[in-house]
């Protein structure tokens, strides 16, 4: 396995091998070996601004990841390239190693989303890992708003996102994490074994901006504990990297509130090193949380671009 | 650790114990009394209402500190013992980069700087002067866990003792704020403190085996409460 280091998913592999929360899950699945062909997907998307429009200039993919083409369907932002991330397997399984590389050249504008929720299946051996890198050049603008992650009972999932962002660029990156399929079986709610979600950002010259590592281990730490999840079931963790003056205007406009009666809590904090904002939402149901993330997205688009959001999809 | 009477250096042990008490005292003048670690918003928003929810809230805070700041504290203690200032600067930057709210950052920096300042004036070791200089020249932000680690390392107090002081500080900050913010008795807060300090050994085990990159957290509601606090009209505490 000498060439492993050159594979795009090598990073996901090495993170899983070194993080302590996955130390006891290094056994191999009885089915296909971890990281085998068919269990390693990667996707490279390179967006460029060319003659007034953003195009998908570079596209490399390997199953289960798939992308068809960039659409220019957003009426308020006709130059915006919209891309749907497709996974042909429809779920994440034990031993999966995924890598996603997104690059936006200077002034490129893109919107990335997934077709549906990412379901992480129950695991009895090993774990699933995904590594994401996002690089934004000067004045680039990216909305990366995938559908929620649904961890099934006994799932083990690692996600690591590394952001490189120019000071003038804007990145809106949302992760919505459900407690599980709580309407299917009560023990599916916070039934995952471990979810480890890391995000870190730096300037292109390497100056570190911020880092966050969320480790959810319901068996080790009580999820319903006061200050952790209380009675909430769904979390949205939204990162906005944008120039400080824009971030300040957005912060001014977003309220912060804890409403236990309605089962909703949200608020934005300023990230260190003038990186932007982090906006967190807690709710009992996914729809409430998605609506609040959409509200934040609307404010961001208005303040950064001066454009309105597209109307809601009928089926999303 | 000395257990028997053989080679027991009583005066030295007494001095170290006194210093541990002095620098770990909740009244040590580094301004801990002006923070509530999110409790003020938690009380205002009805998240903490009684002794039971206060106990759970304080327990969350102590656990979060063990999983995050304390990994840096223990690493920094080892590095400070070796006198490696460059690595201390790197650890400090990583702690700062993980403080994702204004109020969490300003608390860590205010207490860290004051603690360093007090260390220079009271203990006066060369590493403390160097660290103060690094902060003054904006080479490093000067977060609290690093300041505590350096101070204890130069006094020959162990990483374990620094950890105890850190966690005791987190618990007493919340509990003494609770006495001013909500209906709770001194007896109840002392019972909670006694219960929380009983878990110190277990939590040290969590923090001491981890690398700096393993610093983690998961307390979304506490983070939202920090966002609420910045916008509150009436504030008694700075976080």
From TrEMBL, chain A:
GO CC terms in record: cytoplasm
Signal sequence segment: none
Places the protein is found: Cytoplasm
The keyword Chaperone is annotated on this UniProt entry: yes
InterPro entries per the UniProt record, alphabetical: UreD
Domain of life: Bacteria
Keyword Ligase on entry: no
Keyword tags: Chaperone, Cytoplasm, Nickel insertion
GO MF term set: nickel cation binding
A matching Pfam family: UreD
PANTHER family, per the entry: UREASE ACCESSORY PROTEIN D
Biological role stated in the UniProt entry: Required for maturation of urease via the functional incorporation of the urease nickel metallocenter.
Family statement: Belongs to the UreD family.
Assembly, per entry: UreD, UreF and UreG form a complex that acts as a GTP-hydrolysis-dependent molecular chaperone, activating the urease apoprotein by helping to assemble the nickel containing metallocenter of UreC. The UreE protein probably delivers the nickel.
HAMAP family: UreD
Annotated protein name in UniProt: Urease accessory protein UreD
Organism: Bradyrhizobium macuxiense
Automatic annotation (TrEMBL), chain B:
UniProt subcellular location: Cytoplasm
Gene3D superfamilies associated with the record: Urease accessory protein UreF
Keyword Transport: no
Record carries keyword Disulfide bond: no
Superkingdom, taxonomy of origin: Bacteria
Main localisation: cytoplasm
InterPro entries registered for this protein in UniProt: UreF, UreF_sf
UniProt keyword list: Chaperone, Cytoplasm, Nickel insertion
Transmembrane segments: none
GO cellular component terms, semicolon-separated: cytoplasm
MF (Gene Ontology): nickel cation binding
Subunit structure: UreD, UreF and UreG form a complex that acts as a GTP-hydrolysis-dependent molecular chaperone, activating the urease apoprotein by helping to assemble the nickel containing metallocenter of UreC. The UreE protein probably delivers the nickel.
HAMAP family: UreF
Protein family membership: Belongs to the UreF family.
Function statement: Required for maturation of urease via the functional incorporation of the urease nickel metallocenter.
Name of protein: Urease accessory protein UreF
């Amino acid at each position: 396995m000498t060439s492993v280091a050159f594979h795009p998913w090598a990073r996901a592999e090495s993170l899983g091998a070194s993080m302590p929360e996955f130390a006891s899950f290094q056994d191999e699945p009885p089915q296909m070996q971890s990281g085998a062909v068919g269990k390693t997907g990667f996707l490279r998307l390179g967006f460029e601004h060319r003659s007034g429009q953003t195009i998908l200039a570079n596209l490399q993919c390997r199953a289960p990841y798939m992308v068809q083409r960039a659409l220019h369907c957003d009426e308020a932002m006709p130059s915006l390239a919209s891309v749907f991330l497709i996974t042909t397997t429809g779920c994440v399984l034990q031993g999966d190693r995924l890598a996603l590389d997104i690059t936006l050249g200077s002034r490129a504008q893109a919107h990335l989303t997934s077709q549906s929720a990412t379901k992480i299946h129950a695991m009895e051996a090993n774990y699933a890992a995904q590594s994401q890198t996002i690089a934004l050049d000067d004045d680039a603008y990216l909305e990366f708003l995938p559908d929620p992650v649904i961890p099934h009972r006994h799932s083990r999932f690692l996600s690591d996102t590394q952001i490189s962002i120019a000071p003038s660029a804007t990145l809106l990156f949302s992760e919505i994490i459900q407690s599980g399929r709580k309407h299917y079986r009560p023990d599916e709610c916070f039934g995952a074994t471990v979810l480890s979600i890391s995000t870190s950002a730096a300037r292109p010259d390497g100056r570190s901006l911020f880092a966050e590592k969320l480790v959810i281990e319901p068996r080790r730490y009580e999820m319903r504990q006061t200050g952790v999840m209380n009675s909430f079931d769904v979390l949205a963790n939204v990162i906005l990297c944008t120039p400080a003056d824009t971030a300040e205007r957005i912060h001014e406009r977003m309220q912060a509130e804890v409403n236990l009666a309605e089962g909703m809590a949200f608020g934005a904090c300023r990230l260190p090193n003038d990186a932007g904002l982090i906006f967190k939402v807690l709710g009992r149901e996914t729809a409430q949380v998605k609506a609040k993330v959409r509200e934040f997205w609307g404010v961001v688009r208005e303040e950064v671009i001066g454009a309105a959001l597209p109307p809601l999809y009928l089926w999303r | 650790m000395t257990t028997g009477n053989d080679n027991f250096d009583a005066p030295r042990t007494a001095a170290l114990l006194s210093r541990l008490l002095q620098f770990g005292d909740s009244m040590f003048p580094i301004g801990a009394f002006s923070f509530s670690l999110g409790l003020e918003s938690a009380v205002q928003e009805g998240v903490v209402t009684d002794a039971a929810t206060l106990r759970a809230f304080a327990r969350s805070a102590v656990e979060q500190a063990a999983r995050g700041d304390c990994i840096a504290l223990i690493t920094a203690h080892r590095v400070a013992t070796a006198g490696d200032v460059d690595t201390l600067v790197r650890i400090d930057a990583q702690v700062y980069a993980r403080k994702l709210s204004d109020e969490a950052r300003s608390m860590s920096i205010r207490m860290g700087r004051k603690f360093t300042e007090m260390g220079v004036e009271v203990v006066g070791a060369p590493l403390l002067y160097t660290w103060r200089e690094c902060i003054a020249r904006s080479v490093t932000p000067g977060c609290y866990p690093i300041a505590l680690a350096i101070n204890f390392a130069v006094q020959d107090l162990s990483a374990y003792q620094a950890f105890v002081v850190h966690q005791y500080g987190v618990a007493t900050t919340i509990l003494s704020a609770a006495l001013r913010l909500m209906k709770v008795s001194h007896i109840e807060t002392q019972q909670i403190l006694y219960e929380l300090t009983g878990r110190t050994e277990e939590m040290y085990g969590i923090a001491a085996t981890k690398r700096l990159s393993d610093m983690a957290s998961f307390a979304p509601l506490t983070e939202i409460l920090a966002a609420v606090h910045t916008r509150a009209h009436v504030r008694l505490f700075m976080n």
